[in-house]
Amino acid sequence: MAARTALCLAGLGLSLYALHVEHATARDPAYRAACDLGPAISCTRVFASRWGRGLGLVEPLLGRDSVANVPNGAIGVVFYLLQGLLGAVPGRVTSAVLLGTSVASAVASLWLAGVLAFGLQDLCLVCVTTYLLNVTLLLLN
User: Fold this and answer.
1) Do 140 and 3 form a contact (C-beta atoms < 8 A)?
2) What is the distance between the alpha carbons of residues 37 and 16, in angstroms, rounded to a whole number?
3) What is the Cα 127 distance to its own chain's centre?
4) CA–CA dist 12, 130 (Å, integer)
5) Which domains does the chain have, with CATH numbers?
6) C-alpha span between 17 and 73 (Å, rounded)
7) Rounded Cα distance, 61 and 137, in Å
8) Which residues belong to the signal peptide in this entry (predicted)?
């Protein structure tokens, strides 16, 4: 229980930070986040890309302005809250939901890691850390 709580709190914090960076960049294009260490190590560039919303999949299907095209950080907030809250509830259905959402997050992490490495050719420290958290939650579940 303590491990799940720590992982979920870390993931929640990183997701909220990602949302903060996205909003700060929208207000001030010159904003530089703490996770921007160089031209090829920039979370701001990743969050501002089309891959930073709806996993990069919603925009081509439903359009940039679709209500479903939410920031990946918002998806993370929901995921980590769900994992944290449901982790305290015993039962088979709860366990199945935890495992199912963890599998989905691991698949999404693999997808986004591929986009990061091969498409954007960037190293987003916030992103990579959340991928590791997601895999750890999958193993825990």
Assistant:
1) yes
2) 20
3) 6
4) 9
5) 1-140 (1.20.1440.130)
6) 8
7) 30
8) 1-26
Write the pLDDT tens digit of every residue in 71-128: 999 999 999 999 999 999 999 999 999 999 999 999 999 999 999 999 999 999 999 9
Residue type, 57: L
Q: Are 58 and 67 in contact (CB under 8 A)?
A: no
Q: Rounded to whole angstroms, how far apart are CA atoms 102 and 136?
A: 9
Question: Model's pTM, two decimal places?
Answer: 0.93
Measured CA to CA, the distance from residue 76 to residue 8 in angstroms comes to 10
The region, left, alpha or beta by phi > 0 then psi within -120 to 50, assigned to residue 121 is: left
Q: What residue type is assigned to position 70 of the chain?
A: V
3-state class (DSSP) for residue 117: helix
